[in-house]
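Field reference: "sequence" (input) and "structure" (output). Example, Undecaprenyl-phosphate N-acetylglucosaminyl 1-phosphate transferase:
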Amino acid sequence: MKIETERLVIRDFQKRDVVGLLEYLSNPRVNCFAADRLCSEEAAFVYMQYSQKDMQRYAVSLKKEDFIIGDVFVLRENEDTYNVGWHFNKRFEGKGLAREAVIGLLDYLFREAGARRIYGFVEDDNIRSKRLCERLGMRREGCFKEFVTFINNPNGTPKYEDTRVYSILKKEWNSISAKSITNN
């Protein structure tokens, strides 16, 4: 898969992405990605090559510099339903790049991959991702209270996190003009 937007390319990982990937996954900012923490270029290379069963990961790189600034991942749950998520480098925040990448991904899934429904899980303290979902026209379908644990509290007990579900249907995506999403 290859998706081009105005400033980005979403593509398969390449060996040269190791340094950029390590930069933002050496210290994941949200607990749900604690298991994705990388501590070496070797670990980053392994991460690029292997993913969970049925999950596809793609690099998000700046078009001009071809430098990886994040990645998106997609899990096809059945023939027309996809679970999506993303990681982005903090150094590139505030420029609309995550929004541009996710718009490109959702548009691709709806128009090319036959998606009818796309959803994502967002932990309650991940304010930026919740805002992004809402700006893309995704609706909050619910909140699972103390749904999962990724880390422990200081006393060693599991820290359970509330997790929100955001989704959008193809008919909703089609009714939103690309201009209204990008200006949002």
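Helices lie at 18-25, 41-49, 97-111, 127-135, 170-175, 178-182.
The chain has one domain: 3-182.
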